[in-house]
Structures are given as structure tokens and as C-alpha cells.
Amino acid sequence: MSQITAAITAVGSYLPEHVLTNAMLEEMVDTNDEWITSRTGIKERRILKDPNLGTSYLAIKAAESLLQKKKLDPKEIDAVIVATATPDMMVASTAAYVASAIGATEAFSFDLQAACSGFLYGMSTAAAYIASGMYRKVLLIGADKMSSIIDYQDRATCIIFGDGAGAVLFEPNQDGVGYQDAYLRSDGVGRDFLRIEAGGSLLPTSQKTLDNKQHYVYQDGKTVFKFAVSNMADAAARIMERNALTNDTVHWLVPHQANNRIIEATAQRMGVPENKVMRNIERCGNTTSATLPLLLADYEDQLHTGDRLVFAAFGGGFTWGAIYLTWAYDTKNELK
Ligand code: UT7
């Protein structure tokens, strides 16, 4: 009997309409387009402006775009996983709300929080459910309304992040195509360097935490950068080595979009040329849990059955890792 692998069989995405450009940020904080572009590669990011809408709105939109493209009855979905660092609420699962809103009434659902590695960890979770034979359709969504936790007076963070969501469907495959291997790691040493200090059980919300702006993202950029460069590149190199992949046999690097320089360091370590590196950081900025599926949505038309993809991410915690997956379909054939 052939082994079951977990393949990605559909992709969906959503970006809110409002565009926040570097020129607009120049009006808000002491920064400039040249600094932002040369240090990060970001030109603009999307922002969900409506204060009455949370991350669930982005997630629902991305899921709906997938359902429409795939012509999938949401009742067939067994599980909905929402990777997010910005849930609608501290308590009450965002995924449960999303699943109900899209009509996935036969599914169970939960949120997964691993900061910028959330989608990567979610891929391994979804794939394990499928490969075990336990479930046949797992919808994984990466969604973040980063603008809800950013201080737009802090130039060290407000230039980096954007809002967005992407979704993928995992299904069983009998031809060996799909999820192949993962190298995932975490190190709690990182929580001092990238965090939201207040609002959790360690430091509940109080007037003092509000006055101290402890509900916004704080990042020691330099330290995070150092860890990100070495760990993301290392994870990608390890996954290549473990699977006897070479720079010739890898078709695509799918890297977390935090900083162009981190992406370049990872590609360099893998020996992968620029034309094999997926990128949309210039348009989207860092959308945390959404970067990887947004890339898949942007590059879907260029992907072919059997293409070898290496995903790599690094985020708060610290959390990081790499995943090797082979692509399971040709978009052009699917649409015929
Ligand atoms: O996705 C989750 C993981 N996160 C990451 O991977 C992010 C990792 N870190 C980074 O991407 C980079 O560290 C940043 C883009 C956040 C910052 O770039 P950097 O090259 O590390 O700059 P820096 O923080 O060392 O700051 C250099 C200088 C400082 O001025 P002085 O002290 O040299 O006078 C900053 O105050 O640039 C200044 N600066 C800015 N200047 C203009 C910091 N932010 C800005 C800004 N505009 N927005």
C-alpha cells in the first residue's frame, strides 16, 4: 500500500485595500523611504482600516477566495487551523468564528500561535493530521492584523509590519507528492527581544501598562536580525542536506518576508539564485503568519507538479524552521 502524503491542493489570499506607503510613514515618524528600502526592502504594506474588523475578517476573506477557486463545499472540511499572533480576542478561538463564518460546520478548529513561524508550524500540524489518515481536508489559514498591535509613533516597528491573510488546503496524496520533511525549533531566550509585554497572564492590562505602551510590539531589531539570519539559513541548509537537495534540484525558496537581507542570507547559504526566491515584501511588508501563504498565492501560476519548495521562517519566541514540500498541481491544468 502506498503511503499517504499531505499535499497542498488549493491556495487563497486576501489583502485589505488601504495602502500605507513609505512616503506616508515619512509624515508619521522620523524616517525616510531610502532608509526603509535599503534596510528592509519594503515599499508599502496593506492596512485593515476598519476599527470594527479583526483578524477573523482577513482569514474569512482568504478562506472564501480558496473555497471559490477550488469550488469546495465547506462542509467537507474536517479541521480549520488559524495561525495568528493577533487573534480577535484573548479568549474565544478566532478559528472557531472563522470556521462557522465560512460554513465549515462539520469541522473542529483552533488557533496556533508561533509568531512569524505560525504558518510553518501549522503546515506540519495539518500535514500530520492528513498523513495519519485521521482527516482528509484540513484548511490552514495564516492571518494577522498587525496594525492592531503596532505603535505608529515607533519608527523601529511601524515601518515593518502589514496586514493580510492566506489559506491553503491540505489533502491526502497517493503519489508521494506534498509534505516531505520539517526541521522545526524554538528557544525561549528570544522572548525578551521580540514581544508584547502586557495583556497576558504575566502582566495583565492595567492603567500602568497602557501608560507605558506595553500593549504594542517591542523589538530589539539588531538582536532579532542576528538570530534570524543564522537560524533561518541554518534550518534551510539542514533540510536540504537531510533530503539530499542541491541548489540545482530546489525549484523555489519560500522565505518568511521579514527583511530582504535575511532572505538574501538564506538564499545565499542554500546557493539558490535570485530567480528561485519568492518575494513580495516590497508590496506587503511583514504580515507575520500570512507571509508564506501570500507568497504561494502570488506565485501559484508559476508552480508545477513535482516542484521542490523549501519554506523557511523565523519569529518571536524565538521560533524557526524549514519545511520541504513538493507541489501537487499545475494551476493552468486545474483551470482548464
Ligand atoms: O518577523 C519576525 C522577526 N523579525 C525580524 O526578522 C526583524 C529583524 N530585524 C530587522 O529586520 C532589522 O533589525 C530592522 C529593519 C528592524 C532594523 O534595521 P537595522 O539595520 O538593524 O537598524 P538598527 O535597529 O540597528 O538601527 C540603525 C539606526 C539607528 O540609529 P543610530 O543609533 O545608528 O543613530 C536607529 O535609531 O537606524 C535608526 N532607525 C531608523 N532610521 C530611520 C531605526 N528605525 C529607523 C527608521 N528610519 N524607521
Please, could you describe this protein's structure?
By secondary structure, the chain is an alpha/beta fold. It folds into 2 domains: 5-177, Thiolase/Chalcone synthase (Peroxisomal Thiolase, Chain A, domain 1, 3-Layer(aba) Sandwich); 179-334, 3-Layer(aba) Sandwich (Peroxisomal Thiolase, Chain A, domain 1), CATH 3.40.47. Helices cover 34% and strands 24% of the residues. The protein has helices at residues 22-28, 33-40, 55-70, 94-102, 118-131, 155-158, 207-211, 221-242, 260-270, 281-284, 291-299, 331-335, and strands spanning 5-14, 18-21, 44-47, 79-83, 108-112, 138-145, 163-173, 179-186, 194-195, 218-219, 252-255, 308-315, 319-326. Strands 1-7-6-4-5 form a 5-stranded mixed sheet, sandwiched between helices. Helix 3 packs parallel to helix 4 (94-102) and helix 8 runs parallel beside helix 9 (260-270). The protein is globular. Residues 31, 35, 39-40, 116, 155-156, 159, 221-222, 224-225, 228, 258-259, 262, 286, 314-315 line the site of oxa(dethia)-CoA.
Strand count, sense and barrel status of the largest sheet are: 5 strands, mixed
CATH homologous superfamily of the largest domain?
A: Thiolase/Chalcone synthase
Bound molecules: oxa(dethia)-CoA
Helix content: 25-40%
Tell me the strand percentage band: 15-25%
User: What is the CA–CA distance across the termini?
Assistant: 31 Å
Q: Radius of gyration in whole Å, from Cα? A: 19 Å
What's the shape?
globular
Q: Order of SSEs, N→C?
A: EEHHEHEHEHEHEEEHEHEHHHEEH
How are the strands of the largest sheet arranged?
1-7-6-4-5
CATH architecture type of the largest domain? 3-Layer(aba) Sandwich
At the first level of CATH, what is the class of the largest domain? Answer: Alpha Beta
Q: How many domains, as an integer? A: 2
Residue ranges: pLDDT <50 for 5 or more in a row?
none
